[in-house]
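Data card: per-record layout.
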Amino acid sequence: MTFDAIGIAGSALTVHRKWLDAVADNLANANTVTGTDGAAFQARYIIAEAGEGTSGVYVQGTASGSAEGRVVNQPDHPLADENGNVRYPDIDLAEQMGALITAQRGYQANAAVVDRAKTTYEAALQIGRS
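The structure for this 130-residue chain is written out next.
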């Protein structure tokens, strides 16, 4: 059970990395404009699932935000329709920034677990050599 620490924390590192990737993609596309005849950029959300017993956590899949987005009146935009409207993604920047910080902290915490477990295992090997 003690030797599972690196595997469990490693699986969490993978989930947090994929979460960070999804949030970064959402933030990068928050101002992507499309015409009203097309779908808005759809935010991506990671769905995590606990593994069996003590096997860690895994990405079960992803979910997408609304393709409807929000319609904004910008008559001077090249993609504007005859009414002067364009479509933006329905992405809440504050929510995404909160998710970014949470995912980053989770990644850092699990990286620290891997580092401490490695140090502990090395110390155990040293004791065995003595």
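Known properties of this structure: Helices lie at 5-28, 93-129. The chain has a mean pLDDT of 92.

See the next section for split statistics.
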